[in-house]
Amino acid sequence: MINIEEPINEHLSQILQTLPHSPGVYQFFDENQKIIYIGKAKDLKKRVSSYFTKETGISGKVLVMVRHIRDIKVIVVDTELDALLLENNLIKEHQPRYNINLKDDKTYPWLCIKNEPFPRIFPTRNPVKDGSKYYGPYASGRIMHNLLELVHQIYPLRNCNLRLTAQNIANGKFKPCLEYHIGNCKAPCIGLQTEEEYNANIAFIKDIIRGNLSPVASSLKKEMLVYAENLEFEKAQRAKEKLELLEKYKSKSAVISNSDLQADVFSIVSDEKSSYVNFMKVANGAVIQSHTIEIRKKLDEPDEEILSFAITELRLRFESQVQEIIVPFELTIDFPGILITVPKKGDKKQLLELSQSNAEFYRQEKLKRAELVDPERHSKRILHQMMKDLRMNQLPEHIECFDNSNLQGTEAVAAVVVFRNAKPSKNEYRHFTIKTVVGANDFASMEEIVYRRYKRLLEEEKDLPQLIVIDGGKGQLTSAINSLERLDLKGKITVIGIAKRLEEIYYPGDSLPMYLDKKSETLRVLQHIRDEAHRFGITHHRKRREKALIQTKLTGIKGIGEATAKNLLKEFGSIENIKKAEAAEIEKVIGKAKTKLLLQYFSQS
Fold first, then answer.
1. Which helix (DSSP H) or strand (DSSP E) does residue 265 occupy?
2. Is-above-0.85 flag for pTM?
């Protein structure tokens, strides 16, 4: 943390002295009178003064901003929520350099139910204040069109733009079009559908759009039964098909057991540069809308601050009026009249986890696309994250990981695998046969192979890794450090141990392990290199065991060579199985002559 060292100029000092202890919004201006930062505060005097208080530690990014401040203006409001709303609007209007950047400026589609006789329903991106009813906005055009398709399949509606006034219809001004003849419209233009019936369908359509499907389902069931009782089976079948369409649509929404729940769900996933906030709208226990936005950080803003900003923005954008918000942690801002829920279990917790999964999926998709466009930049980002997480002072561009393998003290071998820029460099993988250790001694074996590896690299003047990963806990790590100390490399390379049981990270001289987030990219890279070392070591170990087994048991038999021994083991799996096999079975693999030699040897041993 860095403290401000430069004195505050007289103009700023006078402003700080006169600031009120009230909620409001503050604006920082640079020497060109350009707004560089906008913030909110519950107490303007305390919050703004904190930027200039020497005793208060602030981050380097904030310090850089503070050094550019030449003027301050404030706007006093009644409540902290008013401050948050005003801050949101001002940031979108001025887009200051040091404020978080909302990476989302699309115009979203709405569903319009037109204010006219026999209302049309159609999508639009430009709502107009003409008395029409608008629903949305929809985060995805696909979601909106799927809903619109369902509506048209259940309720035939007109899509023409004729002025269907009662007088025009009575005067016979119109003729039915193709939509009527193919069953997509009931021709209200020539009086074949009354306005009362049409408007009743519109009322049910509004229920579908709002996610309130129960009244629609009940109406279709009643309609189906009436048709069946009147022996109108074709009409009953059509009503049944509409009901099935509705149920299919309902099943595609995430539905919870509490069918009365009306809530907005918000979750946040963050990394060093951005936060990803997911919004889910829940109506009658079903998720009817989901949208994720990316917010670029500028001053290492905490999740609590970013989430409060995003909630305000998204509820305004999607015109949400629900009285409950489900969030992952307590918010620092009160939303009057709104119930803030931080669930620990049950349906609401499941909805929060679903929202979290959507935010993480969006983040991963963004990262994957970035990797496709610029793989090198993607690798550098991961390396910077690893350097931060593992408390290193240089990028781990070259990582090596060691693993031991032995079977009851026999055929002890080891492996080292190499990653460059967070990716395997397989042509640099190496195997070791343990030379100085007798029996199963993982610690001594680790000390031997680490010493041999880096003694050779030093002798050949090859580049050394920035990070060494030891597959094991404190004992194996200590052994590796002993070898590096003998080579005068201790303290020059970051060395960690990773224990498999709980994925604990150990540092030399630190008795307590470090735990990384289970979803972090740093842990995934470490797990990958550890698993590669284990796989590479085990493969080599198995080959040596197989070769040793062949050489000591079968190739010692006169007339049985290595190729024959391999064929036998491949067919029967073990020497014991060969002994139990019938002569005819063995003959199929190696022929009569060699089978005779083999059986003769087994009978004498």
1. strand 263-270
2. no
